[in-house]
Amino acid sequence: MALVKTLEHFGCQVDFPVAQTCCGQPAFNNGFTAEARVLARRMIEVLADSEHIVTPSGSCGAMIREHYPELFRDDPLWQRRAAAIAARSYEYVEFLTRVLRVDLRGFSLPEKTTFTYHYTCHLRGLGATGQETIRLLEQIGNAAFVPLEKAEQCCGFGGAFAIQYADISGAMVRDKVECGARTGAQVMIVNDGGCAMNIDGARHRRGDGFAVRHIAEIIAAAIANAAPPEANRS
Predict the structure, then answer these.
(1) Containing domain of residue 85, as a range?
(2) Residue 23 placed within a domain
(3) What is the maximal distance between C-alpha atoms in the chain?
(4) What is the pLDDT of residues 184-231, one digit of tens each?
(5) How far is it, in rounded angstroms, from Cα 116 to Cα 148?
């Protein structure tokens, strides 16, 4: 909802096709290529008429951009269709910074809030450095950034990795949460659904006080804070 609200604020007409399903990454990562192709074909057809395709999750973006064309390397027709979808697909922050080129310096949060940021692994495949989110955050008034120790270290989720290697995964996410707690930040920004679920679950079990949020939620809060009181009540 935050993603939709922010994109609409910046002039985008947002469509959410109800026929869309999973992008197929869980099947692909576990070696079920045929099943992943079924889901990929469905997504390609559902999104065929979209001018831009925006996802709040770096892992889904990486699946479409990196692996959809690969899934159909032996099928020229579907590979062309997959490549066309991949070329129009963006992770949310990537879309804000590279396509819309938004400037958030006119926005402010209701009160000063400290943030740290976990750089999710799949953003590497999209060519993101992790600094894009930090730069957006630093444009927002009342948002103070605190660096995270081992920010680029995996949180241990990795989809099926967390199930197949639970002990290793658990140790990794506990380390991530400990690093987050040491920052003293009130919020950890995590721009991937899987990472957010993993980190927030470990944080809850440890009883640490920071919240886990997507950058879209922070931007939406800043936009709402700038709206007239009447708009905020609606």
Answers:
(1) 12-97
(2) yes
(3) 57
(4) 999 999 999 999 999 999 999 988 789 999 999 999 999 999 977 665
(5) 6
Structural tokens at position 69 = 């064309």
Assess whether 117 and 155 both reside in one domain: yes
149 contact partners, CB below 8 Å, separation of at least 6 = 179, 182, 183
Backbone CA torsion sign across 92, 30, 125, 68:
negative
**CA-to-CA distance for 220 and 140, rounded, in angstroms?**
11
User: Could you give the CA distance from residue 187 to residue 59 in angstroms, rounded to a whole number?
Assistant: 21
Domain count, the chain: 2
Same-domain check for residues 203 and 131: yes
Q: What is the pLDDT of residues 95-149, one digit of tens each?
A: 999 999 999 999 999 999 999 999 998 888 788 888 999 999 999 999 999 999 9
How far is residue 212 from each of residues 189, 194, 202, 222, measured CA to CA in Å?
6, 12, 11, 17
What tokens were used for 34? 């045929």
Tell me which of 47, 68, 97 is where a domain ends: 97
Model confidence, pTM: 0.91
Angle at 136 (CA atoms; ends 12, 130), nearest 5 degrees: 110
